[in-house]
Design a protein that fits this description.
single chain, Rossmann fold, seven-stranded mixed β-sheet, two-stranded antiparallel ribbon, 22% strand, ATP-binding, FTHF_cligase, 5-formyltetrahydrofolate cyclo-ligase, 5-formyltetrahydrofolate cyclo-ligase activity, ATP binding
Length: 191
């Protein structure tokens, strides 16, 4: 592999790498990531935004993160995506929240109490790859860049990944929002 690669190349490479993971790998590594999160200086915060994983994409399973947050009595927020406007609506997760996959297989709350982005303290960010400067490669739809751009300036942005950082992403844009941390099963990066 030659670096730097661009986002399109990294997207293809890391989708292939994720497809190669077994269910047991995903469970084990997702738990390792959740355990690494305990070392982060975020536990004084209240509102945590968590993505719900797309099983078909072999994403990091955030169920362990949800258990961790609920065990620490945190307010958990999940989103619904509008693919026409590329906007996300943020909903408070409660025991009564009904979750249903949308047309793209993304688990989403059916309805519930909407939470303004200004309240969100910490965002767990899904990604396919990231570099040593904290730039990330997502699925290329721009949902998270738009969402993070609307958050308060001190929101803590935490990527979670099964794989370590690449040295550099070739085509980073000015509008790309950098992560503050990225956590893998074996390492914690701080940017």
């Amino acid at each position: 592999m030659r670096y730097p690669m661009d986002k399109k190349q990294l997207r293809q490479l890391y989708k292939t790498k994720r497809r190669a993971l077994s269910g047991a790998d995903i469970d084990e590594q997702s738990l390792a990531i959740a355990n690494q999160l305990l070392a982060l200086p975020i536990w004084d915060k209240t509102y945590f935004h968590v993505f719900l994983p797309i099983a078909e994409q072999n994403e990091v399973d955030t169920e362990c993160v949800l258990h961790l947050l609920s065990g620490k009595d945190k307010e958990i927020i999940v989103s619904r995506s509008d693919f026409e406007t590329r906007q996300m609506t943020h909903i408070l997760l409660t025991d009564n929240t009904k979750i249903k996959p949308n047309a793209y297989g993304i688990p989403e709350p059916v309805d519930g109490l909407e939470v303004p982005v200004s309240k969100i303290d910490v965002v767990f960010v899904p990604l396919l790859a990231f570099d040593e400067s904290g730039h990330r490669v997502g699925y290329g739809k721009g949902f998270y860049d738009k969402f993070l751009a609307g958050c308060k300036p001190d929101v803590v942005k935490i990527g979670v990944s099964f794989f370590e950082a690449v040295p550099e992403i070739a085509d980073v844009f000015e509008s790309d929002i950098q992560l503050d941390y990225c956590v893998t099963p074996n390492k914690m990066y701080q940017f």
